[in-house]
Amino acid sequence: MKIGCNTVSFRNYPLEKALETIAETGYKYVEIEANLAWCSHVDPYKDDPERITDLVKSYGFKGISAIGVHREMISDPNAVADVTQALTWAKAAGIPAVITDEGTLPEGMSEKEGIDIIKSNLKKMLERAEAEKVFLCLETHGYYSLSPGGMEKLLSLVPSEWLKVNYDMANVHRGDYVGTNREGYAWKLNSSKKGDEVATLKSIVSYVAHVHAKDVIGRKAVALGQGEVNVRECIKILKQSGYEGVLSFETEGEDSFEQNKKMMKESLSYLEKLITE
């Protein structure tokens, strides 16, 4: 397994500052956000993919593990266009995966209606993913994917070798996530959907192509191993499954610059220890 870090931890700073700090801390892989008002470190419609690749290499990183392009797939009419553009951009930048999710089920819409929309949108997205040979990773980050058996249902909608999972262990544990749209962002769902991050991972581990290594106390991000999430057991399951991808440390970027940097250092040491055990 490889160790990386998401630039979202420094979402209130320019991309260059995030890359510089993550590299100084000792991470060899980086995940970059392309996530509207929440964290728009890259824009697949405007940024030159080769320039971003060269920029990342200039800080000594071995590669970009993924770009996060979270959209409210059920309700955002631009979700397909945004994600397909990101898949093409990722191919040009040499990035193996684009991360997105299904989002929230709008009030008044039935679960079947929501599933039908997701299926239609996934089909279009996966046509581009297959053409570009870039993985489309659904994150545990929405109405269905944070419900028991929900991610398995989403993965069965459009069978494709290019449809994978970005497993966020903390989202599953606490049952919520930050939803984004073109107007802003807000916390979605609540503790009533709180799940079992270990049991959920076991059920979908064969689909996992990218991981958000994240620990929390309530909604507050903490260094790995210092919170409520069973990070150790999740890493054990991944290791036993033969997972060789990136463990991308992530916070919501809500702490101070120095506190985020401290959490990053402590989490890197923790992951290095777990991987070698």
With strands numbered from the N-terminus, the spatial order across the biggest sheet is: 1-2-4-5-6-7-10-13
Radius of gyration: 17 Å
Count of alpha/pi helices: 9
The parts where pLDDT drops under 50 for at least 5 residues are none
User: What class do helices, strands and sheet pairing give?
Assistant: alpha/beta
Query: What pattern of helices and strands is seen along the backbone?
Result: EHEEHEHEHEHEHEEHEEEHEH
Biggest pleated sheet: 8 strands, parallel, barrel
Q: Residue-averaged pLDDT, rounded?
A: 96
Task: Work out the helicity level.
Answer: 25-40%
Query: What separation lies between the terminal Cα atoms?
Result: 12 Å
Net shape: globular
Q: Would you report the number of β strands?
A: 13
> What fraction of the residues are assigned to beta strands by DSSP?
15-25%
How does this model look, in words?
By secondary structure, this protein is α/β, with parallel strands linked by helices. Helices cover 39% and strands 23% of the residues. It is built from nine helices and 13 strands. The protein has helices spanning 15-25, 49-58, 79-93, 111-132, 150-155, 169-174, 197-204, 231-241, 257-276, and strands spanning 2-6, 29-35, 39-40, 63-68, 97-100, 135-139, 163-168, 176-181, 184-189, 208-213, 215-217, 220-222, 246-249. The strands form three sheets. It has an eight-stranded parallel barrel, surrounded by four helices. Strands 8-9 form a two-stranded antiparallel sheet. Strand 8 and strand 9 (184-189) form a beta hairpin. Helix 7 (197-204) packs parallel to helix 8. The longest helix is centred in the middle third of the chain and has 22 residues, at 111-132. The mean pLDDT is 96.
